[in-house]
Amino acid sequence: MDLKQCEEEARQAALKDIINMFQRSDQLEKLEQYRQRVARQKASVEALLKSGLQNQLDGVRVGLEQLKTCLQDVREFKRSMGVVEQLMQGVPEIYEALQDVRKENIKYSQLATAVKNLGLIYNVEASVQQTMTLIEEDNLLYAHQSLTELENARDDLLDELHMQPKQHVSDKITFKRHFEKFDTVSQALEKKLRFILSRTLETVRKEPQIIVTALRIVEREEKSDQFALQQQKVTSFLPPGRPRQWRAMAMNVLKEAVVTRIEYSKREEREDNKMWLVRVLEILRQNILVDLRVVKSLCVPCFPPHYNIFEEYVKMYHESLSNYITLPAWISSLNKFQRPLLRALFSTSSRVHSYTSSARQLYQLEMSSPKIVIVGSGASGIACATKLLDYGFDNVVIVEAESRIGGRIHTIPFADNVIDLGAQWCHGEKDNMVYELAHKHDLLDSTGDVYESYQCVRSNREVVPEDISQRLKDIVNDSLVTRQMELRNCQGSLGSYLNNKFYEALRRPENSDIDMAIAKEFFENYKKFENSVEASDTLDDVSGKGYLEYWECEGDILLNWKDKGYVEFLRLLMRSRELKTEWGVLEKRVLLNKKVTRIEWSRNDCCVQIRCADGDCFVADHVILTVSLGVLKEQQLMLFDPKLPVEKQRAIDGLAFGTVNKIFIEFPQQFWPDKWTGFTMLWRDEDIADIRGTPRAWLEDVFGFYCDHNQPRLLSGWMIGANGRHMETLPEDEILAGCMYLFRKFLQWDIPEPCNFKTSTWYTNESFRGSYSFRSMYTEEVGTSARELAQPLHVVTTKPVLNGEPTVEPLYNQSRCDKPIVQFAGEATSDHYFSTVHGAVEAGWREATRLADFYGMLRNSHKLPKSNL
C-alpha cells in the first residue's frame, strides 16, 4: 500500500477518535490525560512494531542458515549420485550373466505352480463341498474366492495342455470330468446372486452390505471375463464357461424385478371396483416414486458408478410400463369406455416415456428441494435461514423454543425507548459483517468513552481522584497492548498473567505514590470487568493462549444502535422494512414455542427426525442447530439419538460457557453529575467482609453502573459469575432493594426511588443456560476447539448435483459421500469471533454455504426449483 495513503488513513482514523473523545465541551478538561494516554499507546505500539520487525529479521537469518544447509545437502547428493552412476555401469554385464538363472527360475515357477495345482486337483471334492457350505451359509465372498481358486487350477492345467504340441482329446475329457462338479458350484452361486439381486429394493434398506457383496462378485467375474478374452487373443485358449457375463445377468434380474413390481400393482379387477383403472394408475405412480427415491438415496452408493443405476432404473420402468399397458390380456380387461381412454394416454412409446419422465421429474423436484430445519431463531439461525433462501433453497423452517425470535438478541421497550437485555454492541468495524450491513443504513453510533472515563468509588463513598484512577486504568490498558506478544507462550491462565503484570507495574518507582489498598480494590474490580468480557467466573479459568484465539475487529468496538436496539439488525437480515412485514422473508417460516427434545440422525432413509415437546415431529434432509453451547452442555446426552461422537462430546464439554447479566434501573430524573459517565464500585476489605455470608453476598459481583446518552435517566449495571446466576433466582423486589443498597452505600447523594426496573435471566432460562462462550484452561487441557464443535454429523449417501448424477466415490469402492445431516452454528462454533453477534452470523452463513456447496449451488450458480412441501 502507498505510504501517503497509509498516512492519510491514519490521519482520518485519528480525527474520528478525537471526535469520539470530545463529544461534549466538558470533556476538553481531560485533554492532557488523553494526550498522555495516546503517547503511552504510541510507545507501546512502537515497541510492538520493533519486536515484530526483530522477529522478521530473526526469521530471515534462520532462513539463510537453512539455505546454506540445503546447499551442502545438494552437494552431498550430487557426490552420491556420481558414485551410484559408476556402480550402475556394471549392471548390463550382470544382467547378461544371469540369463541362465532366469531360465531356470521360469522352470521352477512352472514346477511350483504344478505342485500347487496338484494339491487342488486331489482336493477337488473337498473344496467343492466346502464352497457349497459357504454358499449355504451366505459367506459369498469366501465362497467366490474358493470357487476362483478351483477355476484357476483347472484353467492352468487346461492351458498347459492346450500349449502341448501333441494334444490328446482323452486328456481334456479327463480333466473336464474331474472338475465337472465345479459347474454345479458355479450355478449354485449364480442362483444365490439372482435371488439377492431380485430383492435389491427391499434388501438395500436394511442390509445394503449384502447388495455390495453381490456386486463385488459380479464385478470380479466381469474382470475375469475380460482377462480370459484378452488371453484368448494371445494363446487362442478360452476357459470353459467363459465369458459368464454376470453383469448382464444382474441387470436382467433387476429388470425382471421391475416387471414383477409393475404387474403386482394391478390388485383389483373391473368387477371389484368401478374406479379400478384410476386406482391402478395411482398405485403405479406412487410405486415408481417410492422406488426411484430408494434407488437414488440407497442404491446409488452401493452400485459402481459405471452402472449409472438411477438412469438404468428409469429406462427399465419406461420399457416395462410400456410393455405392461399394451398387453392384450390387460387391454381386454378394460371396458369399451376405458380402452379409448387408455389408448389416448399411452398410444405411443413416447407417451409412456413422458409418464415415467414426469415421475422422475416429480421425484427430482422433491429431492432437489431438500427440507431444512433450523433449531433456534437467534442471530445465527436467522442469518442461516436468510442465506439459504438467497441460495435458492425454499423448504426452510425455523423451530424456536421461545415465544419470540432473536435468541440472545433481546430488545424490549423500556424507559425513554428500548434496552438490550442481551447483545448490545457492534464490536468493531473492519471485517465485521454486522457493521458492514448496519453502517449503510446509518444505524450505529459511538458509545464514546463511557467505559473508559468512569469514576471509581470506594465503599466508604470516597471517589478515587481522577489522576490516580486514570493511571490505574492506563496500567491495565497497557498490558492489553503488550499481551498479544507475551501470551503466545503463556502456559498459565489469563488471571495469573494479568496479576503479575499489574503488581509488577505497581512496583515501578513512578507508581510508588499510589495507595496499595486502592490499587488492590481497583484491580479486583477490573478483574470482574474482564470476567464480563470473557463470561468467566474467574480469570483463573481463562486460558492465556486461548485468549488470543479471539480476533478483535479494528475500529470502534462499542458501537450502539442509537434508540432502536440490536433487533434492528435482525430486521435488516430478514428485510422486514423492505417487505413491510414483521419477519420479512421469514414470514410463515418460523414456528414459535417449539422446544426440540430429540434429534434422531441415523435413520435408514438418510433423513433426520426432530421431535418436539408438544408432540410435533419433523422429518428433514438436514437440521442446523444454532442453540447455545449452554444448551448443548445440558442436553447433549438426551437430545441426540444415537449419541454424539466422542470428539463432538469433547468439544461441547471442553469449550467454556459463562453467564453475564444486566440490571437496568430507570429513575424519575438524573441524580448524578453530568460529567459522570458511570461508576465502578471498589470494595474495601472490611466492607466486603460485612456482606459475605449474608443474603446480600451476591452484590459483591455487581461491579459497576453506566450511563446511556440515549437513555438519560437510566443506569445499567453489570454482574458476573455464580452470584449473577444466583441473582436470577431472587424475587425482583429483593434485587432492586440490593441495588438501592449499593447506591446508598457508595454514593453520597440522595437517591430517588426508581420508577422502572429490569434484569436479564440468561442462565435460568433453559433455552440458553448462559450468555456466551470463551476458551478456558480446560479447553486447552482437552485440546479441543470451535472447529470440532462446528463439524457436522454425516451419514453415507450419494452427493446430489443438479443433473442428478453422483459426484463422489460410491460405497462399492469402500469410500463414502458425507451428507451433513446435523450441522452446528452459533457464536461458540466461530474460530475467532466467538461471543459476538458477527461471529454467530458468520457461523450461520458458513453452514448455509456448506449446504449450497453440497448441492452444487456454488459451482453452478443455479437456484433450486421451488418446493411443494
TrEMBL record:
| Keywords, sorted A to Z | Coiled coil
GO cellular component term of the entry, any: exocyst
Q: Which gene encodes it?
A: 106092278
InterPro entries per record: Amino_oxidase (IPR002937), EXOC3/Sec6 (IPR010326), FAD/NAD-bd_sf (IPR036188), Flavin_monoamine_oxidase (IPR050281)
Listed name of the protein: Amine oxidase domain-containing protein
One of the Pfam families matching this protein, by short name = Sec6
Give the GO biological process terms: exocytosis
What GO molecular functions are on record for this protein? polyamine oxidase activity
Task: List, alphabetically, the Gene3D superfamilies matched.
Answer: 3.90.660.10, FAD/NAD(P)-binding domain (3.50.50.60)
Which chain positions lie within coiled-coil regions?
24-51
Can the keyword Coiled coil be found in this entry's annotation?
A: yes
Reading the lineage from the top rank, the first entry is Eukaryota
Q: Where is the Amine oxidase domain?
A: 380-851
User: What is the organism of origin for this protein?
Assistant: Stomoxys calcitrans (Stable fly)
- The answer, when asked if Coiled coil is one of the entry's keywords, is yes
